[in-house]
Design brief:
By secondary structure, this protein is of the alpha+beta class. It folds into four domains: 162 residues, Nucleotidyltransferase, domain 5, CATH 3.30.420.10; 86 residues, GIY-YIG endonuclease, CATH 3.40.1440.10; 94 residues, no CATH class; 72 residues, no CATH class. Helix content is 36%, strand content 23%. It has a five-stranded mixed sheet, with helices on both faces. It has a five-stranded antiparallel sheet with strand order 17-16-15-14-18. Helix 4 links the parallel strand 4 and strand 5. The longest helix has 18 residues.
């Protein structure tokens, strides 16, 4: 039996965001046997950007049940079912995070229709749900709402089942040269993992917010010669929990440079793809353009156009700026934020230039991370500790862990827990990129 699921959320991070809607279709491998859907009160504001995408407003969820009120329904419906979703790690990690906040360990076997589609029906340019359904003539109604997307996933999954009847059936106790039980016992937590060959040499190092799920994905390889060669050579696995995703990225980078595993490509964390460029319009307002980097030097750079726009969306809302002037809304008239009274009218020259530009400068300070000396305090490996990351004079010093009680009572000795690591261009880019695009628990500037 399968539980085919889709959720809508207030954002992309299960650590910082919440679920606003869930839909579940129960399926016996041949047909739908039951269904369930509800809006969920996320107990926080839904941003205008998310409302634009999903159509779910703050008013719609105001009287909806909170997650804890429908948690039992989800447990009951998914019990002894295989969790199926399009980009399953997204939906699963959000639901698991909600349950974790309630003190409950939600764990289900999972299938991802993105990965299954790449394997069973290769050759498509895009495997997003909308594009894949268009290519396969699967009708999608009510797109970006949980019930509509879940039903589209049902139809896609039924097509995949027709082409491969073994989906979800465990026919082997081994994954290549590794006992299935060893992989199944891996933690669904953040950290760095290591693959070893038969001689005990490290042949691959990776990081993940869900080690178990990520390791499983390696064995559902994409059919490339590199994937096949690597999985054939894996004879053992180990891992190190980090708690913080930022620490995992930093540790992974250092470990790859130290061990030089044969299947790790050279880290390519260049931030020279997309830039945010600043200018002044004819009325004196500071404006921004997001575009590819050529000769002109940007204020700040990102890995992709979408990453840059997502970050600008968040900061535009935070500082009550104009979407149009920030390069996020093309129109000859007022921007969308002005229409919903979140922009004070800079787009139509109603807000004084000096007042608007002062807020823009505050946003610029946060966007560019101009400060050079700071400590990051982030999630630890358990609830009673935190990760500590130090940057001094613009150079990465290292990281360590400290108990919460120690942090609260000995803040001046916080740096004593830091273990030194090499500074280099890659870790500099990891730090700047991550801190621009993600939230951490606290940043202390000194």
């Amino acid at each position: 039996m399968y539980a085919i699921i889709d959720i809508e959320t207030t954002g992309l991070s299960p650590v910082n965001e919440k679920i606003t809607e869930i839909a579940i279709y129960l399926h016996d491998g041949e047909k739908i046997t039951d269904s369930y859907t509800t809006l969920i009160n996320p107990e926080r504001r839904i941003s205008a950007h998310i409302t634009q995408l999903t159509g779910i407003t703050n008013e719609m969820v105001e009287n909806a049940p909170k997650f804890w009120e429908i948690a039992k329904d989800i447990v009951t419906l998914t019990d002894k079912k295989i969790f199926v979703a399009h980009n399953a790690s997204f939906d699963y990690n959000f639901i698991r995070s909600e349950f974790k906040s309630l003190g409950y360990n939600f764990s289900r076997d999972r299938l991802c229709t993105v990965k299954l589609s790449r394997k069973i029906i290769p050759g498509f340019k895009s495997y997003s749900l909308g594009n894949l359904c268009n290519s396969l003539n699967i009708q999608v109604t009510n797109r970006h709402r949980a019930m509509g997307d879940a039903f589209a996933t049902v139809k896609l999954f039924e097509l995949l089942l027709q082409k491969d009847e073994t989906l979800g059936k465990k026919t082997n106790s081994k994954f290549y040269n590794i006992e299935a039980s060893k992989i199944a016992s891996l933690p669904e937590e953040t950290g760095v993992y290591y693959f070893y060959n038969q001689q005990g040499d490290i042949i691959y190092i990776g990081k993940s917010k869900d080690i178990r799920s990520r390791v499983f994905s390696h064995f559902n390889n994409d059919g490339t010669s590199k994937s096949i060669r690597m999985t054939d050579e894996i004879f053992d696995i180990s891992y190190e929990l980090t708690g913080s995703e930022l620490v995992a990225l930093l540790l992974e980078s250092n470990e790859i440079k130290m061990h030089k595993p044969k299947f790790n490509r050279r880290q390519r964390r260049s931030l020279n793809h997309t830039g945010v460029f600043k200018s002044i319009d004819e009325f004196g307002y500071i404006t921004f353009t997001v575009k590819g980097i050529k000769d002109e030097l940007p204020i700040v750079s990102f890995n992709s156009l979408q990453e840059a726009k997502d970050r600008l969306f968040l900061l535009t809302e935070k500082y009550n700026l104009c979407q149009k002037l920030c390069g996020l809304y093309e129109t000859s008239g007022p921007c969308f934020f002005h229409q919903i009274k979140k922009c004070n009218g800079a787009c139509v020259q109603k807000e004084p230039v000096e007042i608007y530009n002062n807020r823009v400068q505050q946003m610029l300070d946060e966007l560019s991370l101009a400060w050079k000396d700071f400590i990051v305090i982030d999630k630890g490996r358990n609830n009673s500790e935190r990760a500590i990351i130090k940057v001094s004079n613009g150079s990465y010093i290292g990281f360590g862990y400290a108990d919460l009680e120690y942090i609260n009572h000995n803040p001046e000795e916080l740096l004593d827990v830091i273990k030194k690591y090499p500074d280099n261009k890659d870790v500099q880019q990891i730090l700047r990129s991550y801190l621009r695009q993600h939230n951490v628990e606290k940043i202390i500037k000194y």
